[in-house]
Design goal:
Blueprint: H1 3-25, H2 35-47, H3 52-59, H4 63-75, E1 79-83, E2 91-95, H5 97-117, H6 123-139
Antiparallel strand pairs: 1-2
Helix pairs in contact: 3-4
Length: 142
């Protein structure tokens, strides 16, 4: 298989990842937050501590919008700003205890949906899936 064909498979894979992500996360966010705020909390949860600029860059949100949405999340006591001790000008964003609880609950529901999708996989297939994910992470999504 040539690199062009491999790229086409990669594009189809990324599209499928977006589709399944939307399916698996549908209806799991709290009614108190918007879909954008949920995506921000999800990103913070996985990447914390994280800077405002990293959130903005990775989620393709302008800095002013990122700041505004983070302020709303802070007002809802779902995230906290932490000042870097080495460079007091730098701030990191972390989930608060309440934010951790919300995201643990959401990830628990996503995990249940994931378990349903792989319920009929054999032990060998589960090992192949794990191996494929490890390779993708180390070679493509590093």
């Amino acid at each position: 298989m040539g690199k062009s064909e491999l790229f086409q498979k990669f594009v189809a894979f990324v599209s499928a990842v977006h589709e399944i992500t939307n399916h698996m996360t549908r209806d799991i966010r709290s009614e108190d937050i918007t879909p954008l705020q949920y995506k921000m909390l999800e990103f913070i949860s996985i990447s914390q501590p994280v800077t405002l600029s990293k959130i903005s860059e990775c989620l393709h949100i302008s800095m002013p919008n990122t700041s505004r949405e983070l302020r709303k999340l802070s007002e809802k006591q779902l995230c906290d700003k932490v000042v870097d001790e080495a460079d007091r000008r730098k701030q990191y964003i972390r989930l608060s205890k309440q934010g951790e609880e919300m995201m643990n609950e959401a990830f628990g529901r996503v995990e249940s949906r994931f378990a349903e999708r792989i319920a009929h996989a054999t032990e060998e297939e589960l090992q192949e899936i794990e191996h494929a994910l490890d390779i993708l992470r180390s070679k493509v999504f590093y």
